[in-house]
Every structure is written in structure tokens, then in C-alpha cells.
Amino acid sequence: MIKVAKFGGSSVAGAEQFKKVRAIIEADPERRLVVSSAAGKRFGDDHKLTDLLYLCHAHLTYGVSCGEIMHTIEQRLVEIRDSLGLKYPVERELEELKARLNRDMSVDELVSRGEYFTSRLLAEYLGFAFVDAADCIFFGFDGQIDREKTDAAIAAAIMEYKKILIPGFYGKLPTGRIKVMTRGGSDITGALAAAAVNASVYENWTDVSGILMADPRIVENPSPIARITYAELRELAFMGATVLHEESIQPVKERGIALNIRNTNRPQDAGTMIVESIEEKEQSRERFITGIAGRRNFTILTVQKRNINISLTLRQALEILDRYKAPVEHITLGLDSFALVASSAALGDGLYDVIADIQKTCRPDDVRVQDGIALVAAVGRKMTFRPGISGKIFQALGESGVNIRTIAQGADELSIIVGVENDKFETAIRVLYDGFAG
Ligand code: ASP
Q1: The whole model's pTM is what?
Q2: What number does CATH give the domain 291-437?
Q3: Which residue has the least CA distance to atom 6 on ligand 1?
Q4: Which residue's CA is the nearest one to ligand 1's atom 5?
Q5: In the structure, what pLDDT confidence band is assigned to residue 262 with cuts at 50, 70 and 90?
Q6: For the domain with range 3-207, which CATH number is right: 3.40.1160.10, 3.40.50.300, 3.40.190.80, 1.50.10.10?
Q7: Mean pLDDT of 202-207
């Protein structure tokens, strides 16, 4: 069996972190495929290599020398190499890079070097074969990952070398040029690698002991989530919880591979296990709510019209919002009205045109606008088909003086979402956490 271990930027930020990574790898011989991010921040106002490289490119674009930034990058890499007694010729490689900077190097290739250099050092330190992502992560002409080709290349590499390390975040286009993924993309590389070798688990090593039940900036010391399904995670992520790169879920989910979020600084913690499904009997002792997340700044547009033809008027209103590129998050229906919830930022200055268009096309009796709304979601598979849960949630919020402006429940009953005033956002999250999750 093979376990894929992906280490994020903070896990490979410096020599001390490299040591922790090696201890983790040596603790389990099944951890034979490693994916690494670029060295991240070692402390609060430190810089990520990737950010420095993007900055370098910006300097080049404006004709400003990036010598100083390059020097900072070199120092970071040399420090890791020298304190661990490694041999990788950082200076020479950087010289070659600098020589090519103004000539034939794209921004993608330049920023991909953060992962490349960090992984070169880590591979040497772990004694793993370095397999360049340019030789095993392939994009098609459409810019999407060519799964078949990628699977075959990674499977062949692990067969040949047994223990391999692949830099995250980038791959190769059919033209031979390097393309990077969106930020945080090493998560995707890890997922592709896990899928390619049919890993027993995809371990995603970071600096927190798993996904927390609520934002720790709002709830003091929230418990970590021990187990969560992919569907629940999607709901939480959509509602603002930032955990993994969105595109890293599908490759492992479709092959039934569990994803384990772990803490490089506390390897003794079990972290969060993300799985396709959890058997009923296993979850009987678990809480109703798996996690709570939310986002501020939504606008509710309520359209009122006596004897309304709901399907016609709703369709017209939806088309109008679509034209103004404001995705509708929720719809609630009344007898003679409906309400649409959309992000205030997406509506922007277009709000007044949207209202004017609704007036003109739908000929309503009234259009009401309410902004400053926050959406708070309580997510939990255990809420599905259980009577009474939403009642309890509404009661708890009401008793704490939180006025509920809108209510939505996903059709699959995985989440209950309430709209409250922006200034009650944090209270609502705390009430839900204290009452149902803690
Ligand atoms: N180094 C890249 C970033 O900072 C990719 C990653 O870390 O996953 O976004």
C-alpha cells in the first residue's frame, strides 16, 4: 500500500520543518509518495517563496531590478541546504535561472521554481527520487489536467523508483511550457498523485490539527472535526471555511480514497478524516452539527406581486441577475412574493439597474432591498431527515436576540442556512456552536 503525503508551505518553511517532515516520513514506510509546496512563512511577517517569485515577475514587468528579491530567495534556500548538510547547488541553479529571466521565461515557469527548488532539497534530504512535475503532471490543450497521461506517468515513476517526491502546483502543457495551477494548487497535485497510485490515504500535512468546527477567530478553541464526508466539506467550504483547494477533492473522492488533514507540528494528532460516507452505527455518538461556517455581505431582493405567476416572474428575475453576473445563492418563495439572495459585492453598482430591470420586466407591486445580511450555515449529515433540528436552531437564535431574516435548507438536508444582520454574524455562529456543536 502507498500513502501519499503532501506537505504545505509552512511544513517546509525552513530546516527545522524539514526535520519534522523526515520524522513523519520515516515513521511509516508506506509514505512513499511525497508532494511538496514551496517554502512558506516561518513566522508572521515572513514571505512565501511563491509570493517572492510573483513579486520578482512584477518587478521585471516594470523594468525594475529584482536582484534583491532573488538574493532573499537564495538565502532562504542556502540556509536550508547548509543547515541540513545537503549538496544541491542552489547558487548555480539560481544563476541559470537569472540568466534566462528576461529572455525565455514565462511567469508560470518562474513562480513554479518555488516548488521546484524546495522539492529538490527535500528529495535529497529524504533520500527520495525527485520526479519533476513537468514529467508527470500533464495539462491538455484546454488547460485541464490530462488525467490518463498523468496517472500513467506517476504510476510508472513509483514503480521505477519506489519512493518519489513530486513538486506541487505545476505541470506541463502539450506545447512543452510550464503551467501553474491556481494558488494553493499543491493540494491538487497531491490528489492527482493519490489517485494515480490508488493510495490507501491522501495525507495533507499542514499547520493545524484538522478542520475546526468553527472559525477560531469567532469561537474560542473550537473542537476539530474528527470525521466529515466530502459532501459536508463542500458545503462548509462553499460557506467560507478555507481548508483545501476546491479542485483537490474530486480526484480522490471519485476513487474512494480518504483524505486525512494532519498537523506537521503535532503528528500525534489524528487530524480530520474526510471520507465518502460514514456508517450510521459509527456516527451514533456524534454531534448533530459537523461544522459551522458563514459569510457576510449579502443582499435580499424581495419581489412582491398580487396573483403572481411565480415560474414566469421568477425566471425573469433570475435572468436579470444572471445578466448582471450576480449569482443567486438562495431563493425563498411566498404566496405572492419571492426573495432572492445574492452577494452584495457581486451586485455592486449594478443593483440599481437590476431593480429597474425587474420593475420594467416583472411589473411587480413592490421590490424591496435589504443589504448587510450574513449567511450562517450549520452543516451536518446527521441533520438529514431528523425532525426538530431546525426548530431547535431557530429557537436558540431567537433566545439570543438574533433575528432571522431568511432561512434555507439544502434539498439534501445537509445544511441549514440562516440569514441574519451582519452585526449578528458572530453571535449567530457562537450560539450555534455552543448549543449544538461544542
Ligand atoms: N506555493 C503555491 C502557493 O503558495 C502552491 C501551494 O502552496 O499549494 O499558492
Answers
A1: 0.88
A2: 3.30.2130.10
A3: 184
A4: 184
A5: very high
A6: 3.40.1160.10
A7: 97
